[in-house]
Write a structure and sequence with these properties.
Number of strands: 4
Largest sheet: 4 strands, mixed
Shape: globular
Strand order of the largest sheet: 3-2-1-4
Number of helices: 10
Distance between the termini: 44 Å
Helix content: 55-70%
Number of domains: 2
Structural class: alpha+beta
Length: about 220
Protein backbone atom coordinates (compact mmCIF):
# COMPACT_ATOMS: atom_id res chain seq x y z
CA UNK A 1 0.00 0.00 0.00
CA UNK A 2 1.42 3.40 -0.99
CA UNK A 3 2.09 5.79 1.85
CA UNK A 4 -0.28 8.70 2.27
CA UNK A 5 1.38 12.12 2.31
CA UNK A 6 -0.90 14.58 4.09
CA UNK A 7 1.72 17.28 4.53
CA UNK A 8 2.87 17.02 0.92
CA UNK A 9 -0.54 18.00 -0.39
CA UNK A 10 -1.04 20.71 2.24
CA UNK A 11 2.31 22.30 1.39
CA UNK A 12 1.43 22.24 -2.30
CA UNK A 13 -1.90 24.02 -1.90
CA UNK A 14 -0.83 26.61 0.70
CA UNK A 15 -2.09 30.02 -0.37
CA UNK A 16 -4.20 28.54 -3.17
CA UNK A 17 -7.61 28.79 -1.53
CA UNK A 18 -8.83 32.07 -0.02
CA UNK A 19 -10.82 31.92 3.21
CA UNK A 20 -9.25 28.58 4.23
CA UNK A 21 -9.10 28.50 8.04
CA UNK A 22 -8.06 24.97 8.95
CA UNK A 23 -6.99 21.60 7.58
CA UNK A 24 -7.05 18.79 10.12
CA UNK A 25 -6.57 15.03 10.04
CA UNK A 26 -8.70 12.98 12.42
CA UNK A 27 -9.64 9.38 13.26
CA UNK A 28 -6.86 7.82 11.25
CA UNK A 29 -7.43 8.41 7.56
CA UNK A 30 -10.03 11.18 7.53
CA UNK A 31 -9.54 14.87 7.15
CA UNK A 32 -11.46 18.12 7.04
CA UNK A 33 -10.98 21.50 5.38
CA UNK A 34 -12.76 24.41 7.05
CA UNK A 35 -13.44 27.67 5.21
CA UNK A 36 -14.61 31.00 6.55
CA UNK A 37 -16.64 31.38 3.36
CA UNK A 38 -17.16 28.19 1.40
CA UNK A 39 -16.43 28.63 -2.32
CA UNK A 40 -19.57 29.24 -4.35
CA UNK A 41 -18.38 27.51 -7.55
CA UNK A 42 -17.48 24.24 -5.83
CA UNK A 43 -16.46 22.08 -8.80
CA UNK A 44 -14.45 24.84 -10.48
CA UNK A 45 -12.66 25.81 -7.26
CA UNK A 46 -11.57 22.24 -6.50
CA UNK A 47 -11.01 21.09 -10.10
CA UNK A 48 -7.32 20.33 -9.47
CA UNK A 49 -7.88 18.54 -6.16
CA UNK A 50 -8.62 15.00 -7.53
CA UNK A 51 -5.25 14.94 -9.27
CA UNK A 52 -3.48 15.98 -6.06
CA UNK A 53 -5.37 13.41 -4.02
CA UNK A 54 -4.21 10.72 -6.42
CA UNK A 55 -0.63 12.03 -6.37
CA UNK A 56 -0.41 11.90 -2.56
CA UNK A 57 -2.62 8.78 -2.14
CA UNK A 58 -5.21 10.56 -0.01
CA UNK A 59 -8.98 10.27 0.43
CA UNK A 60 -11.23 13.20 -0.45
CA UNK A 61 -11.64 15.61 2.49
CA UNK A 62 -14.79 16.91 4.08
CA UNK A 63 -15.03 20.52 2.93
CA UNK A 64 -17.14 22.65 5.25
CA UNK A 65 -17.65 26.23 6.28
CA UNK A 66 -17.23 27.43 9.84
CA UNK A 67 -20.92 28.39 9.84
CA UNK A 68 -21.96 24.85 8.79
CA UNK A 69 -20.11 23.42 11.77
CA UNK A 70 -21.54 25.81 14.33
CA UNK A 71 -25.10 25.29 13.07
CA UNK A 72 -24.80 21.49 12.87
CA UNK A 73 -23.72 20.57 16.38
CA UNK A 74 -27.25 19.49 17.28
CA UNK A 75 -27.57 17.33 14.13
CA UNK A 76 -24.11 15.73 14.03
CA UNK A 77 -22.66 16.02 17.54
CA UNK A 78 -20.93 12.62 17.45
CA UNK A 79 -19.14 13.36 14.17
CA UNK A 80 -17.79 16.66 15.50
CA UNK A 81 -16.97 15.17 18.90
CA UNK A 82 -15.02 12.48 17.02
CA UNK A 83 -13.10 15.17 15.14
CA UNK A 84 -12.46 17.31 18.21
CA UNK A 85 -11.14 14.41 20.27
CA UNK A 86 -8.64 13.13 17.69
CA UNK A 87 -7.60 15.85 15.25
CA UNK A 88 -4.15 17.07 14.29
CA UNK A 89 -3.75 20.39 12.51
CA UNK A 90 -1.97 20.09 9.16
CA UNK A 91 -2.18 23.70 7.99
CA UNK A 92 0.34 25.68 10.03
CA UNK A 93 0.14 28.30 11.27
CA UNK A 94 -3.59 27.76 11.80
CA UNK A 95 -5.53 30.90 10.81
CA UNK A 96 -8.33 29.76 13.15
CA UNK A 97 -8.91 26.52 15.06
CA UNK A 98 -12.61 25.87 14.53
CA UNK A 99 -12.73 22.46 16.25
CA UNK A 100 -11.14 23.08 19.64
CA UNK A 101 -13.81 25.47 21.04
CA UNK A 102 -16.82 23.32 20.13
CA UNK A 103 -19.31 22.53 22.91
CA UNK A 104 -21.95 19.81 22.73
CA UNK A 105 -25.33 19.24 24.32
CA UNK A 106 -25.38 15.96 26.22
CA UNK A 107 -29.01 15.51 25.16
CA UNK A 108 -28.01 15.77 21.48
CA UNK A 109 -25.11 13.37 22.02
CA UNK A 110 -27.32 10.79 23.73
CA UNK A 111 -29.99 10.99 21.03
CA UNK A 112 -27.53 10.47 18.19
CA UNK A 113 -25.87 7.61 20.07
CA UNK A 114 -29.25 5.88 20.25
CA UNK A 115 -29.84 6.39 16.53
CA UNK A 116 -26.38 5.12 15.59
CA UNK A 117 -26.59 2.02 17.77
CA UNK A 118 -30.02 1.04 16.52
CA UNK A 119 -28.98 1.65 12.92
CA UNK A 120 -25.89 -0.55 13.28
CA UNK A 121 -27.88 -3.27 15.04
CA UNK A 122 -30.49 -3.37 12.26
CA UNK A 123 -28.26 -2.95 9.20
CA UNK A 124 -25.47 -5.27 10.35
CA UNK A 125 -27.97 -8.09 10.79
CA UNK A 126 -29.48 -7.42 7.34
CA UNK A 127 -26.04 -7.55 5.73
CA UNK A 128 -25.24 -10.74 7.61
CA UNK A 129 -28.26 -12.49 6.12
CA UNK A 130 -27.20 -11.40 2.64
CA UNK A 131 -23.66 -12.75 3.10
CA UNK A 132 -24.21 -15.58 5.55
CA UNK A 133 -21.80 -17.94 3.75
CA UNK A 134 -19.09 -15.38 2.96
CA UNK A 135 -16.86 -15.14 6.03
CA UNK A 136 -14.55 -12.62 4.38
CA UNK A 137 -17.31 -10.11 3.65
CA UNK A 138 -18.83 -10.68 7.08
CA UNK A 139 -15.52 -10.01 8.82
CA UNK A 140 -14.78 -6.80 6.94
CA UNK A 141 -18.35 -5.63 7.48
CA UNK A 142 -17.83 -6.03 11.24
CA UNK A 143 -14.54 -4.10 11.10
CA UNK A 144 -16.25 -1.25 9.23
CA UNK A 145 -19.11 -1.31 11.71
CA UNK A 146 -16.60 -1.13 14.57
CA UNK A 147 -15.05 2.01 13.06
CA UNK A 148 -18.53 3.54 12.90
CA UNK A 149 -19.19 2.57 16.53
CA UNK A 150 -16.06 4.24 17.92
CA UNK A 151 -17.67 7.73 18.00
CA UNK A 152 -20.49 6.18 20.06
CA UNK A 153 -17.87 4.96 22.52
CA UNK A 154 -16.58 8.53 22.72
CA UNK A 155 -20.15 9.61 23.41
CA UNK A 156 -20.36 7.31 26.44
CA UNK A 157 -17.23 8.92 27.89
CA UNK A 158 -18.46 12.43 27.10
CA UNK A 159 -21.75 11.79 28.91
CA UNK A 160 -19.79 10.65 31.97
CA UNK A 161 -17.42 13.66 31.81
CA UNK A 162 -14.45 11.39 31.14
CA UNK A 163 -11.44 12.43 29.03
CA UNK A 164 -11.47 10.82 25.60
CA UNK A 165 -8.22 8.99 24.78
CA UNK A 166 -6.80 9.22 21.27
CA UNK A 167 -5.78 5.54 21.11
CA UNK A 168 -8.63 3.23 20.06
CA UNK A 169 -7.62 0.42 22.42
CA UNK A 170 -7.71 2.80 25.40
CA UNK A 171 -11.05 4.14 24.19
CA UNK A 172 -12.52 0.63 24.19
CA UNK A 173 -11.13 -0.14 27.63
CA UNK A 174 -12.69 2.98 29.11
CA UNK A 175 -15.97 2.32 27.33
CA UNK A 176 -16.06 -1.05 29.07
CA UNK A 177 -15.42 0.68 32.40
CA UNK A 178 -18.24 3.22 32.15
CA UNK A 179 -20.83 0.88 30.57
CA UNK A 180 -19.77 -2.44 32.16
CA UNK A 181 -19.98 -3.88 28.64
CA UNK A 182 -17.75 -6.75 27.49
CA UNK A 183 -15.50 -5.14 24.87
CA UNK A 184 -13.31 -8.18 24.10
CA UNK A 185 -14.92 -8.68 20.68
CA UNK A 186 -14.23 -5.05 19.75
CA UNK A 187 -10.59 -5.38 20.77
CA UNK A 188 -10.34 -8.57 18.73
CA UNK A 189 -11.76 -6.88 15.64
CA UNK A 190 -9.45 -3.92 16.15
CA UNK A 191 -6.34 -6.10 16.36
CA UNK A 192 -7.13 -8.83 13.81
CA UNK A 193 -6.19 -7.94 10.21
CA UNK A 194 -7.46 -11.05 8.39
CA UNK A 195 -10.71 -13.05 8.43
CA UNK A 196 -10.76 -16.04 10.81
CA UNK A 197 -12.44 -19.40 10.21
CA UNK A 198 -16.13 -19.47 9.37
CA UNK A 199 -17.09 -20.76 12.83
CA UNK A 200 -15.05 -18.13 14.62
CA UNK A 201 -16.43 -15.43 12.33
CA UNK A 202 -19.96 -16.46 13.32
CA UNK A 203 -19.03 -16.26 16.99
CA UNK A 204 -17.51 -12.82 16.49
CA UNK A 205 -20.69 -11.67 14.77
CA UNK A 206 -22.88 -12.92 17.62
CA UNK A 207 -20.67 -11.27 20.25
CA UNK A 208 -20.62 -8.01 18.31
CA UNK A 209 -24.41 -7.91 17.98
CA UNK A 210 -24.73 -8.66 21.72
CA UNK A 211 -22.42 -5.73 22.45
CA UNK A 212 -24.43 -3.35 20.28
CA UNK A 213 -27.69 -4.56 21.85
CA UNK A 214 -26.26 -4.10 25.34
CA UNK A 215 -25.22 -0.54 24.50
CA UNK A 216 -28.67 0.17 23.05
CA UNK A 217 -30.32 -0.97 26.27
CA UNK A 218 -27.77 0.96 28.35
CA UNK A 219 -28.20 4.30 26.60
CA UNK A 220 -32.00 3.95 26.91
CA UNK A 221 -31.63 4.03 30.69
CA UNK A 222 -29.19 6.92 30.95
CA UNK A 223 -30.43 10.40 31.78
CA UNK A 224 -28.47 13.55 30.97
Amino acid sequence: MKKKDWNGLVNEIKGTFPHLLQIAQYSGERWIWVFDLEPDNYLHTFATLPKLLKKYHLPAPLILSKDFITTSLDSYPLEFLDMQSSYVNLLKPVPEDCLQPLKFSKTDIRLQMERELKSKWLLTRVFALQHLNDCRKMFYLLKESLIAILPVCKGFLYLKDRPIPKADDKLLEQTGEVTLADVKVLKHLLQTPKPPSANLCGNIFNDYIRFVRYCMDTIDTWTV
